[in-house]
Amino acid sequence: MRKYYTLLPALCLITLMTQGQQIKKSEVKRILSTLAADDMQGRETFKPGAEKAATFLEKEFAAAGLQPLAGDNDFRQSFFQYDTKPVKQELVLNGQATQGERVFVSSVEANISWTQDTEVEIAHINAGDNFDSKVRELKRTPKNTLVWVDSTQTEKFNQYAGGLQQHGASKQDSTATVVFVLKQQASDDAGKWSVQASQEVTRLPLCNVAGMITGSGKPDEYVIFSGHYDHIGILAPVKQDSIANGADDDASGVTAVLMLARYFKTHPPVRSILFVAFTGEEIGGYGSRYFSRQLDPEKIVAMFNIEMIGKESKFGKNSAFITGYERSDFGQILGRNLESSAFHFYPDPYPEQQLFYRSDNATLARLGVPAHTISTTQIDKDTLYHSVNDEIESMDFDNITSIIQAIATSATSIVNGKDTPSRIDKAAVSSRR
């Protein structure tokens, strides 16, 4: 039927294959096999395997001909996380000392000393608020903040504060200091107050690996290709294997980033392109959170985050899905660029899994960037996910290569400045954390 159309798809398929000739399966296999090898020890953040992976990626970025990000001298975007353990906490209300258990602190400072005259923001966790959600939100605030917590939240407050006293805080980045104070009377927040706190702070170094190609016509507009190079490290042995190699999660995505860097180096873009291998995704997205604070989000046109493309999607070969497809026209643009080819992008078929919020695209999406993850994982039935069996032998290299080729082709109109995806509704995304 409609045989007179067969020439156009054939020509487009030839174009897709020609554009993808630099995406060589042999190189895909070499890079992915290196990242997922046993000697990377599962690439766990803060461990030697992650450092070894970062060193490998630096060499690959250099070999691809990338430049460091503006203002950087190399491909490492270094920063720190902090382990903290409370030592002393004191609260004075209207001249009366109160129980220290009424205070907990989210900070990387060793000593905090505030009074009502200190320049800090004031916030509240009220009776009807979701305590856990509000704490997560407030811990990401960019300004030093004192948070008054309604007495109806006492049980949740004590659970959280008790956990900090016993185990210390989960790893934090160097955002603002936030002090949470439990009210006992409604008027507690109306008088004079002072808070003093001290804690043990251990600084832990980590890094993203990032490079760029400067655009020829719109150098101050950016397109991002990203994946995360960390995984979960060493697990309890299963049949004498204890290394969670992370071939699919996410050596496959980082391999795509490297191959796309090579491709666009020989197909110079109009907009600048940033290529990023994030750290810390598995423990809270710390790499992408740090990265997002280094850029003006209004200058980021789109983010192609690539995660778990090592196997066929539920839609079969020549297919992948896009998380948050409905939140911008990013997916529609990619689809138009591939409409005469055999490859198709689909909306995320697993909305109940909340994948849009579970990868490194989420941080920039909350800032309004059309930031989406491209994936093929059948997450609802993937028995290899986060196991010692996520190994190179489970990878479909033909399929991975075709996906990378399709991403390169589908991104062309965006990197060349012809298409600009619509922005994501920041309020709608920020309400889901």
Automatic annotation (TrEMBL):
Q: Does the keyword Hydrolase apply?
A: yes
Q: Which residues form the Peptidase M28 domain?
A: 208-408
Record InterPro entries: M28_fam, Peptidase_M28
Q: Which PANTHER family match?
A: AMINOPEPTIDASE YDR415C-RELATED, METALLOPEPTIDASE M28 FAMILY MEMBER
Ordered alphabetically, the record's keywords are:
Aminopeptidase, Hydrolase, Metal-binding, Protease, Signal, Zinc
**By what name is this protein known?**
M20/M25/M40 family metallo-hydrolase
Give the top-rank taxon of the lineage listed in the UniProt record for this protein. Bacteria
* Pfam family name, one: Peptidase_M28
